[in-house]
Amino acid sequence: MSWATRILKVGRIVQASPAAPARTVPSPTGTRASLQIRHVDAGSCNGCELELSGAFSSVYDAEQFGARLVASPRHADALVVTGVVTHNMRGPLIDTLAATPEPKLVIAMGDCACDGGMFRNGYGVAGAVGDFVPVDVELRGCPPTPDQIVETLRKVTGR
Amino acid sequence: MALSIALAALQVLLVLVGAPLVIGAMRQVRARLEGRRGGGVGQPWRDLRKLFRKQQITPEGTTVVFRAAPFVLLGSALLIAAIIPVVSLGSPLDSSGDFVAVVGLLFLGTVALALAALDTGTAFGGMGSSRQMTVVALVEPTILLVLFTLSLRVHSANLAEIAGGTLANPAQAFSLGRVLAFASLVIVIIAETGRLPVDNPATHLELTMIHEAMTLEYAGPRLGLVEWASGMRLTVLLVLLANLFFPWGVAPGGPGLVQVLIAVAAIVAKVAVLAMALSVGETFLAKLRLFRVPELLAGSFLLGILAVTASSFLPAAGR
Asked: Looking at this predicted complex, what is its ipTM?
């Protein structure tokens, strides 16, 4: 029963959220507060993955704004791509985007995804995400903090 | 007759509208217990509305099995909603649909989805189907046993008569057989609808999935139908649990307007309480290893056998 008492004692962990940012990116389907995200790791150092899981944790709770990570690109409205695109992940990245039903968005997360970052010109690197698929939203940072991730997602979900 | 058809339509409508809210309420309870704020009870409805605006994708090489499965799943769930006593006891399908038919319809939906997953020809689809069939093979006999326990007392397989029998004879409601049957049915509902600890509805790890693995290839409107129908299956099973074991508030056949309103309020309250209790319970559980799931289900089958034994051999309190 210690779990029950702990739940009662801790109560809400989630941070107070600022007012919704202006909606700069039109939501793919034109509906508010519903964005299913498929995460694609195209060759990341896993720094962005840590922050992304932080954004969906109890503290930042991106789910309260309607964003949710899903298991299949077929279920997704947006791809969040992290890391530089390596030679081996170039094909899978393009295939994943092709498997996503229209209308869809690509969010390039982290400096590596946006322009190659510190891994630019590496021997295993094919390029940045924008070189292979059209990028709709860029999220800078190495890695971006959960606050920044949540803010970017809110600009898309509009909540 | 016209009245009973109208009531059946009301039941179907109630389940259609209510199912996403049941899922939303369960997610919301879980979010609160995890210290999060959560997306709100209406989140599944927002997701559904969005899914119906998305592109329909039919994967290469799939056949009519893949395309028809969401409709079979939805149709079977709607038919169950019309047969079982949700609001009133006098369903127009009462004479043709007893509890065996309801279990069969549940199974029909499950099999349709499993076949559709096989039809896609993907590795995860086949894995999801084989897992689901393993679970279902153990679940269906238990549901039949539990409902058989309940039908023994009233000497009828008719669901309305089972609920009516308890209403007429409230002393029987807490007999040993029924308590065992209740416990057994709860476990079975958890397994059948893919909740923790059998399957994790929030997972995105393909290797641990059961239900999700079967829907991986669905997109857009068809995915919406599958998700909606899955919510409806959970809802009708909770309704069945509520109204067979605690039928108070259900309107008798041929009710007045007030009785119907009371019945609607009663079933909404009962399903809300059951869904939230299920969700609170889930918060304390981790997913079972797949090879231990049959042990859990065998346990529930044993409870079912004990329930049948108890209700056929122990003297009834109110007989």
From this structure: 0.90
